[in-house]
Specification:
197 residues; alpha+beta; seven-stranded antiparallel β-sheet; two-stranded antiparallel sheet
Amino acid sequence: MTGTPIAQLDLTGFRPLEELAWQDDNGIVLSLHYFDLPPDLPAPLAPVPRLQEALARYTAAAGAGLIDCDVELVDGVPAVRQLVKIRHPQGHGQVFLASCTVPRATCSTVLKLQAPEYGSTGFREALIASRFGPDDFFLPSPFAPDLTDGLPTHRADDPRYDAEFDGHPLTLARRLMRRLLPTVRLDPRFKAEPDFT
């Protein structure tokens, strides 16, 4: 994989789309990126709650919503894993963006999944909302409870409902990221770069 510090990745189920981009049978696009400049993360990786709050506010200011965010090791290097929802730019529904950014002091690499809703949209949200009612469906952001901008947090984003909605793009993106990250191997030269602070 030239053009990216990600030297190894299990691409089972994906077919080439273009350079450093692949697509699976569910329409999910996987892409790899390298940025030869200091990462633009809005906070250090620790403490994690501070980073989560900063990313939630950054995401909301862009009109989107942060569903999940954490720091974990990717091939031994601290990385930021995010799951974001945005409005579909070409119609109804949403696109779920799962990404993992591996930051170093002067550069970074990103693995990104784009999982758009197709056809009838909002079914997951409507079904879960019908169980709780409108007053109990929407929730404060788990990372910045006072947030009012961006896409709202609600119960249908919760991973506990993934088993019920096995083919939903949110479920698929979350599952794929869990499968892919343990298979990532980074170029030793990239790993040797100074840590992001």
